[in-house]
Amino acid sequence: xxxxxxxxxxxxxxxxxxxxxxxxxxxxxxxxxxxxxxxxxxxxxxxxxxxxxxxxxxxxxxxxxxxxxxxxxxxxxxxxxxxxxxxxxxxxxxxxxxxxxxxxxxxxxxxxxxxxxxxxxxxxxxxxxxxxxxxxxxxxxxxxxxxxxxxxxxxxxxxxxxxxxxxxxxxxxxxxxxxxxxxxxxxxxxxxxxxxxxxxxxxxxxxxxxxxxxxxxxxxxxxxxxxxxxxxxxxxxxxxxxxxxxxxxxxxxxxxxxxxxxxxxxxxxxxxxxxxxxxxxxxxxxxxxxxxxxxxxxxxxxxxxxxxxxxxxxxxxxxxxxxxxxxxxxxxxxxxxxxxxxxxxxxxxxxxxxxxxxxxxxxxxxxxxxxxxxxxxxxxxxxxxxxxxxxxxxxxxxxxxxxxxxxxxxxxxxxxxxxxxxxxxxxxxxxxxxxxxxxxxxxxxxxxxxxxxxxxxxxxxxxxxxxxxxxxxxxxxxxxxxxxxxxxxxxxxxxxxxxxxxxxxxxxxxxxxxxxxxxxxxxxxxxxxxxxxxxxxxxxxxxxxxxxxxxxxxxxxxxxxxxxxxxxxxxxxxxxxxxxxxxxxxxxxxxxxxxxxxxxxx
Length: 602
Fold this sequence. Notes:
Blueprint: H1 2-26, E1 34-37, H2 43-52, H3 54-57, H4 66-86, E2 93-98, E3 101-102, E4 118-123, E5 129-136, H5 158-173, E6 181-190, E7 195-203, E8 209-216, H6 223-230, H7 240-252, E9 256-263, E10 272-281, E11 285-294, E12 297-306, E13 315-325, E14 332-342, E15 349-361, E16 366-379, E17 384-399, E18 402-418, E19 429-442, E20 448-461, E21 465-477, E22 508-510, E23 513-515, E24 519-530, E25 535-547, E26 557-570, E27 574-585, E28 593-598
Parallel strand pairs: 1-4, 5-7, 8-10
Antiparallel strand pairs: 2-3, 2-4, 6-7, 9-10, 11-12, 11-28, 12-13, 13-14, 14-15, 15-16, 16-17, 17-18, 18-19, 19-20, 20-21, 21-24, 22-23, 24-25, 25-26, 26-27, 27-28
């Protein structure tokens, strides 16, 4: 009995001691008081220093071990000095004291049991300027010049030294010296004159030409097709822009989720340099769904895409569209098939084949249209592309002039330049598009040419306002008004032209009916104001003209609309758009019109 009682008391005491130790271990350690002094530093410099300091970032938190505090302090010496060098202060004083002792002098093998205070003192010293500076040798007339700020008397900092060295290396690479590098540098600070002297020596190496391109990566696209699409100019003198262009061609196909074109570490004995294209495939198939809601009804569209149909990065696209759902008129529909093969005639050319079947039931005409075409698309640069195609179409239409059939053989020429900073929510830049479609009428249909143009410009005012403008023009030359197919002529009104009026409400009056015009102009202006990072408000005014002549005259059917809109930006998608518009002129019986969609109106 006595033994059992003693063991019970011992067990209770042991349990109590363990509980106490656990409680003491679980209690948070007290944060070490930390001060950060930066005499003679302005607010911007002090903010950068504080943001860099590992020791300061840990203030107010539970302190770690003494070793952790010492490690943070020792790393701060280097990081704080680097910030000062980057800002042009080359004679700084950095002191980090732990309980009054300089952290750099502490013996890591004999540390105190705890640290009670941390004091950081940073004295930037005077700002330096550049003294004698040079980057050499340099090629004659380099594409990339040495920065203007790299000169005697300019403010000194390590950033400008790096920029000057990088510009020198780039200048050599742009004239074919792919392995140019910095061979050495001599940098000295004169604390008496507060000048920084820098002598950067470059080693251009050999002038090289493009060699072979190898393919690396688990891709279902044939290696030969990848090489053809990349279009690496083997045998030509090396230029880094040509390497970037090859990578851009592969990305442009939409077949790959990742593309890297990497140069070999060493050149070949024949003064060529080889490259490797490292690619990762996108999922082969993609399905998309879209919709738009207006006062004329809803529109839905679907697209199915195969990114690598035959193993050569061929892009096959099948799309359908239904519009006018729930509206007062019959439903329109469209089915389209497009096959595009990249790099058919050259690395920047792709051929495409197009088939379309469309039923249109518009306000002033109905049409059943079938079209087939083959063409070539040319990418001239990241911002400029063109297209040429030939084909045939048949159109069975009923309009103000009765029921007729138009058969055409046509060609289409298109040129497009896009210098916007965003395709769905532009705030700066411009967009230009122009097309000409000469057509040859068959079986009694008249011949002629259709011209179309679209110009958009965006100009920021401060950080919260954007002024946007759009001009659309169209003209049909050749046929008389009664012999123009409404699929080639022009109507106006709705979200794509003049808001505040019903879709395609305006054309040319023919008795009590309306026919497609031969001339068209629409002008739109918007003032976009950003309220928050995601929410914006828009005020807009649209005006349009449709004429029986090829170019709108004073007698053209004029109409205008104005309104306000809201935009809510969704990252990765673009702004959701809601526009409310009233007719200003040209038939005010339409009343309030609303438009819902994704992306800006233009």
